[in-house]
Amino acid sequence: MGNNNNELTASGSAGVKTVGNGLYETSMKETDVVLQELNTSLEGLTENMVDEMRSLYGNNEVTYGEKKSLWQRIFEAFANPFTAILFGLAIVSFFTDVLLAEPGDKNLTTVIIITTMILIAGVLRFVQETRGGNAAERLSKMIKTTTAVERQGIGRKEILLEDVVVGDIIYLAAGDIVPADVRILKSKDLFVNQSPLTGESEQVEKFPDIVKQGEYDTLTEYHNLAFMGSTVVIGAATCVVIGTGDDTFFGTIAQGLTVKPVQTSFEKGVNSVSWVLIRFMLVMVPVVLFINGFTKGNWLDAFLFAISVAVGLTPEMLPTIVTTALAKGAVAMSREKTIIKNLNAIQNLGSMNVLCTDKTGTLTLDKVVLQYHLDVHGNEDVRVLRHAFLNSYYQTGLKNLMDASIIERTEKESASESTLQGLSTNYDKVDEIPFDFQRRRMSVVIEDKKGKTQMITKGAVEEMLSISNYVEYKGKVEPMTEVIKQDILETVDNLNDQGMRVIAVAQKTNPSPVGVFSVEDEADMVLMGYLAFLDPPKETTAGAIAALQDHGVAVKILTGDNDRVTRSICKQVGLKVDNLLLGSDVEHMSEDELKSVIETTNVFAKISPQQKATIVSLLRENGHVVGYLGDGINDAPAMEASDVGVSVDTAVDIAKESAHVILLEKDLMVLENGVIEGRKTYANMIKYIKMTASSNFGNVFSVLIASAFLPFLPMAAIHLILLNLIYDISSTAIPWDNVDKEFLKIPRKWESSSISNFMIWIGPTSSVFDITTYGLMYFIICPLMTGGQLFHQIIDPLMRTYYIALFQAGWFVESMWTQTLVIHMLRTPKIPFIQSRASLPVIILTFAGIAVLTAIPYTSLGASIGLAALPAVYFTWLALTVIGYMALVTLFKRIYINRYGELL
After folding, report:
1. Spatial distance between the Cα atoms of 522 and 468, rounded to a whole number of angstroms
2. Given this model, what pLDDT does residue 504 score?
3. Of 177, 375, 506, 880, which residue is least crowded by CB atoms under 10 Å?
4. How buried is 573 (Cβ within 10 angstroms: 0-12 exposed, 13-18 middle, 19+ buried)?
């Protein structure tokens, strides 16, 4: 959306007048007035009021522009340059064969065949796009994104975003997507990212104070409003919903917005190949026209033949094959409970040669277990657990897995430990300082019934040591010394080496007065002890990493956790640590230094979200296709920077939003399946492209030779068009073809340059046998059937016509055999049918095509289009031709592979 939305001013111009004015007025009112006007309160709405609000304002769903109608989708399935060329050729054929033809010569056959080709390509593409879209939509409904609301009589509960109504009281915390337009009622260090609205990635602070008239130029700057689609970076807030669905600021923009997706390298590659083939056709067709016109003297026949060559050279099935292959991949992944949000993500998964992954929650289980609560000497201490509970329970920010584990452990031990009882009722929260990824800690300020106030802070050990000037050491509060600090770090290192994640707990009594708590107050703390968590790897992690490496995908760990824990987890999952870099190392490196070192480093620890994104971007600049697997708010920037972002259903909202692929189940082996499916998709697309390019090149080469030396056309226009139709039908099975296991072992990048090499090397092999067929038909078969005479010796017009019909039937059948067998020859570098077999659909369609076309000269259809029945001896020669062709292609495949390293 860019910065254009900054033009949407506070007065609500540029198409958002109604919404703009409503938000503007709300921002200038006291919070109690806003609540009163919405007929709600801080206790939330009743269920009856929710129903009433929904009937008044509708569901919280945004209409993204106008939904494409059935007719629009049908039109788009046919809208591509190849179909346009065929459509133009059909119109020209209609004029030449019907409107301008003599009454007895009117013939709709060519028009009908070209139209049939257009219909096959378009209908198949429409069906596959619809099928792939339906599978993704069906699975998308399984993703449940929720928000926390307050409801009267129920209290705080999680509901689906679409169930939010105007007047709802909602709670926001780090990692949340703002579910609707809201007025801030209370906030604590709330910073949001509004880039979906403004295009600006800077964090914007939000707080409840009234906006003064004229204070800001644009609505998105208003400090007491947060808008649907924004994400909470840090902090927490209580808000009231003032707009939902299409009545939100985001919704109003989205209704009239048509965003053109950024063209991926894959799409650019397909388009470049398409235009290479089109340009090839546009150059060669006039050459064929003029050669035949000048040598044969019949310009109308030459023109019709040139049209048929144009049809033959138009790879009209390319968009269909590409769409079908991608949609087939998406449907196959849907059976693995994996959502492909963008069809191209399938191909990107196959091309991926580096997978960067977060550790916690992706490689490890999403249930962290609190193993120990220890004093600084490593002894069990219930006071540490007590203070950790007070911190986790009373915070309103992002409760992570460790918070849940602390609360669960305290509730379990409270049955036998009296000092842990009543913690949730005996205290009131005064204030809090939410967690962020720079400080890596969070604090709450609580007050007990006697008026005693405490600030309790927990966080990463190094960061906690930096704010703790004192420590509970050997039963006393002692000043923190370097000796004590080293003793503490040694204890923590021992726990880390066991694979434990360790955080520290500190407190101070009677901190600053109420209302002025900030990050600066996190000082002069008293360190109490540690919490040690076990975050074991998922059962499938080791197998998934091994499988990915076996398929040429390098796995790199990018984690905010410390290096010792990370090394322990790597050891458990079988990932050898080649080199390990810390965030502090990365911070002091130049871009060029980092570009070099990331090639040999596979573990990065204690790195920030932005450093993750930088590493991913630099890997891409180095020429890698990079995937990123993550589930937290700190993973979102890296996902955005990657070629393909992968997340899990349990991820925070912003991570799922940033991902291209979402795993609905926790089995990481699905990643291997995705990579394999992506490579199958690429393999079958490149098969069709290379077969078509080489076949087209060979056909034109053959036609040019025939046009120069034969006294008649080697094949009539209708023959070429019919041949192309049957070949196209045979090609529709290619997306379902088998792929050699060896091809799936390494990632493949889109290399359009290899196609021209393939075309030049492999294309002429078919021309060799086209030329031998010309010689066979002209000098042996046709004279055999016409009394031993060559064409120029025949005087009888009927015999001349029979001679031409027989010749054209011979090349017609031979062309289908060689052009169809090329599918089997070029689909694999191995020996076809023996070392590598095509899939059953490919075998059935290709041999059915051969059988049908071979039979045509013997039918009334063949007679009506000028073909004659071939003698039995022809098939002996045809068998020798086919064997020779297969041998020559096999030879040239070997030469090509030796020269370029691969076939496809």
Report:
1. 9
2. 92
3. 880
4. buried
DSSP 260-283: PPPPPHHHHHHHHHHHHHHHHHHH
Q: Which two tokens stand for residue 3?
A: 């910065």
Residue type, 118: I
- CA 114/CA 9 separation, integer angstroms: 54
Distance CA 80, CA 277 (A): 14
- Measured on CA atoms in the order 34, 36, 37, 41, is the torsion positive or negative? positive
Closest CA to 554 of 347, 742, 350, 353: 353
Q: Read off the pLDDT of residues 829-873 as tens digits, 9 standing for 90 and up.
A: 888 888 888 889 889 988 998 999 999 899 888 888 888 889 989
Tell me, what's the pLDDT at 457?
93
Residue 863, token pair as written in the block:
């007679």
What are the structure tokens assigned to 218, written together?
């644009």
Rounded Cα distance, 536 and 367, in Å: 9
R_g (Cα) of the chain, nearest Å? 36
CA atoms within 13 A on the CB side of 481: 6
Distance of CA 896 to the CA centre of its chain: 33
Q: How far apart are CA 629 and CA 544, in angstroms?
A: 13
Read off the tokens for 891.
């030879």
Predicted pLDDT at 505? 93
Shortest CA distance to 280 belongs to which of 698, 593, 784?
A: 698
pLDDT value for 66: 56
The pLDDT value given to residue 5: 38
CA distance 610 to 201: 12
CB 163 within 8 A of CB 216: no
In the chain, % helix, strand, coil (3-state, to 5) comes to 55, 15, 30
Extract the residue ranges of the chain whose pLDDT is less than 50.
1-20, 65, 257-263
Report the length, in residues, of the chain: 904
Instruction: Tell me how far apart the alpha carbons of residues 196 and 132 are, in angstroms, rounded to a whole number.
Output: 27
Q: What is the DSSP letter of 395?
A: -
- Which residues lie closer than 8 Å to 778 by C-beta, 6 or more apart? 710, 790, 791, 807
What dihedral angle (degrees, nearest 10) is formed by the CA atoms of 601, 604, 608, 610? Answer: 30
Confidence at residue 7, expressed as pLDDT on a 0 to 100 scale: 36
Tell me which amino acid residue 252 is. T
Rounded CA separation 653/175 (Å): 7
Mark whether 105 is an active-site residue: no
Cα dist. 688→64, 659, 840 in Å? 35, 30, 17
DSSP conformation class of 632: S
The secondary structure of residue 178, as a DSSP letter, is P
Q: Tokens for 137?
A: 């939509």
Kindly name the residue from 181, 189, 358, 431 that is annotated as catalytic: 358
> How many CB atoms are located within 10 Å of the residue 234 CB?
24
Q: Please, which residues bridge with residue 340 across strands?
A: 661
Long-range contact set of residues 611-616: C-beta below 8 Å, sequence gap at least 24: 611/583, 611/586, 611/587, 612/356, 612/358, 612/558, 612/637, 612/638, 613/637, 613/638, 613/640, 613/641, 614/586, 615/356, 615/556, 615/558, 615/586, 616/356, 616/558, 616/641, 616/642
